[in-house]
């Protein structure tokens, strides 16, 4: 029976990339893509378990689907990704109408599972597969200008707060030849930008070729000289001087480094099992700035991790000021079942205190971002136009190599164009400008 499917994607860029892989697997398997959820007879939820609120959003959509499932005979509902991988029983006990669950290493089986789920209840495919990198699958891209390309899957770091090693298994890298060929193919297909993805891209390795991530970036930048190349996420303990030198040397490697710090307190970093101290992190920042003075550095921060004191919270604020982050993803700590912290540490910072500390972090970051963006006024920057701006079709939105968003009058230009734009105004999140000329 032929079916149409719709995927809701939660969480990070890796999940967006996985949904493109799932779309490819299902269209090859004879399924059609539905334009929206209402017209699909297979609804898939590609879930994220990293923070509690992503799981809550998953719960909201599942609750809405419950009524539809009762009304629409033959509707199939499947939960994919990280949540079922570590909470198998809970998905079926809280949402018994869910037909099947499939973990991040098992998407190749999806077409068969959907067919079988019409006969069998509560199918589960959750085996870790240390070798699975989805080689040979050509993702169905959602965009035409920027693409995400996973270069590794899984994580070996076991940070105390983080569920990723439980949900995505051990690290494995996609081979050098394949990454370079995929980037070259994206370039030939007209893509202007690619983001190489991994939970910790700095630990990418190709043992056969004897290459590390610096070697990969070097090869990729030469294979697609006309394309902007980004990467995320870098783990501070693993970012090397050789990597930073390659970024400094190659103009198409973007001078933006996302370097999550989580906390400015060495005691917290130790409890979090991050593998570096506050000073070691600041030394890495100094090393980056030595080689790439205009690098934009962004981060992730967690407020109110187990046993965090006011003094330690203030160390986070002072570290933010010392680094001068462009922007940050900021969260308050939420316990994740299965993690080292959940098993061994007390979640003893009261919710109200976590939220107040997070608010202080957000306020400081907003004022620093506003100042950094204000300093851009008067500069002329290279912008890759990505799309029409959200406010008006007569404006385009694009990004600088430092990943700053710029909005400008469209004129005769289109998404995909690279332009020199003079910055005339700024908020804490967006630059405004006037196009000078195409690059
Ligand atoms: N691999 C990246 C690294 O090591 O920095 C981070 C990936 S993690 C999926 C994304 C971010 O989610 C983390 O950097 C952290 O700030 C946040 N996060 C992870 N677990 C969390 C938790 N239990 N509570 C709050 N934030 C969390
Ligand atoms: Fe999670 Fe740490 Fe791995 Fe990042 S490095 S995905 S925070 S365990």
From TrEMBL:
This is tRNA-2-methylthio-N(6)-dimethylallyladenosine synthase. Residues 141-371 form the Radical SAM core domain. NCBIfam families: miaB-methiolase, MiaB/RimO family radical SAM methylthiotransferase. It comes from Chlorobaculum limnaeum. Its EC number is 2.8.4.3. Keywords: 4Fe-4S, Cytoplasm, Iron, Iron-sulfur, Metal-binding, S-adenosyl-L-methionine, Transferase, tRNA processing. [4Fe-4S] cluster 2 binds at residues 155, 159, 162. Residues 3-119 form the MTTase N-terminal domain. The gene is miaB. Binds 2 [4Fe-4S] clusters. One cluster is coordinated with 3 cysteines and an exchangeable S-adenosyl-L-methionine. SUPFAM superfamilies: Radical SAM enzymes (SSF102114). Monomer. It is found in: Cytoplasm. It catalyses: N(6)-dimethylallyladenosine(37) in tRNA + (sulfur carrier)-SH + AH2 + 2 S-adenosyl-L-methionine = 2-methylsulfanyl-N(6)-dimethylallyladenosine(37) in tRNA + (sulfur carrier)-H + 5'-deoxyadenosine + L-methionine + A + S-adenosyl-L-homocysteine + 2 H(+). GO terms for cellular component: cytosol. Its cofactor is [4Fe-4S] cluster. One of its GO terms (molecular function) is 4 iron, 4 sulfur cluster binding. [4Fe-4S] cluster 1 binds at residues 12, 48, 82. Residues 374-437 form the TRAM domain. It is an enzyme of class 2 (transferase).
């Amino acid at each position: 029976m032929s079916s149409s499917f719709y995927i809701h994607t939660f969480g990070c860029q890796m999940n967006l990339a996985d949904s493109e892989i799932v779309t490819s697997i299902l269209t090859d398997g004879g399924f059609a893509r539905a334009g929206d959820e209402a017209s699909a007879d297979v609804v898939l939820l590609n879930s994220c378990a990293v923070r509690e609120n992503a799981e809550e959003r998953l719960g909201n959509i599942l609750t809405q689907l419950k009524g539809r499932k009762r009304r629409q005979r033959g509707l199939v509902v499947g939960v994919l990704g990280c949540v079922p991988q570590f909470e198998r029983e809970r998905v079926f006990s809280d949402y018994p109408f869910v037909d099947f669950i499939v973990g991040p290493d098992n998407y190749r089986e999806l077409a068969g599972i959907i067919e079988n789920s019409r006969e069998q209840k509560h199918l589960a495919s959750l085996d870790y597969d240390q070798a699975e990198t989805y080689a040979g699958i050509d993702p169905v891209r959602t965009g035409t200008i920027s693409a995400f390309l996973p270069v590794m899957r899984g994580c070996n770091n076991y940070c105390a707060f983080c569920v990723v090693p439980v949900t995505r298994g051990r690290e494995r890298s996609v081979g050098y030849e394949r990454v370079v060929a995929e980037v070259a193919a994206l370039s030939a297909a007209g893509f202007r930008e690619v983001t190489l993805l991994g939970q910790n891209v700095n630990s990418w390795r190709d043992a056969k070729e004897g290459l590390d991530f610096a070697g990969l970036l070097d090869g990729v930048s030469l294979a697609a000289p006309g394309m902007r190349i980004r990467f995320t996420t870098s783990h501070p303990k693993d970012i090397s001087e050789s990597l930073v030198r390659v970024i400094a040397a190659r103009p198409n490697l973007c001078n933006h480094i996302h370097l999550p710090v989580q906390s400015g307190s060495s005691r917290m970093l130790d409890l979090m099992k991050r593998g570096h101290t506050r000073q070691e992190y600041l030394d890495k920042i100094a090393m980056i700035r030595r080689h790439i003075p205009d690098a934009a550095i962004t981060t992730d921060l967690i407020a109110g991790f187990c046993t965090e004191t006011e003094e330690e919270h203030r160390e986070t604020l002072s570290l933010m000021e010392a680094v001068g982050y462009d922007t940050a993803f900021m969260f308050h700590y939420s316990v994740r079942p299965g993690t080292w912290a959940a098993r061994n540490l007390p979640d003893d910072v009261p919710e109200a205190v976590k939220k107040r500390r997070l608010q202080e972090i957000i306020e400081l970051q907003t004022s620093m971002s506003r100042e950094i963006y204000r300093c851009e006024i008067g500069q002329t920057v290279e912008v890759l136009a990505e799309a029409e701006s959200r406010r008006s079709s007569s404006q385009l939105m694009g990004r600088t190599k430092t990943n700053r968003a710029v909005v400008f009058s469209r004129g005769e230009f289109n998404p995909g164009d690279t332009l020199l734009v003079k910055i005339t105004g700024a908020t804490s999140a967006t630059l405004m400008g006037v196009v000078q000329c195409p690059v």
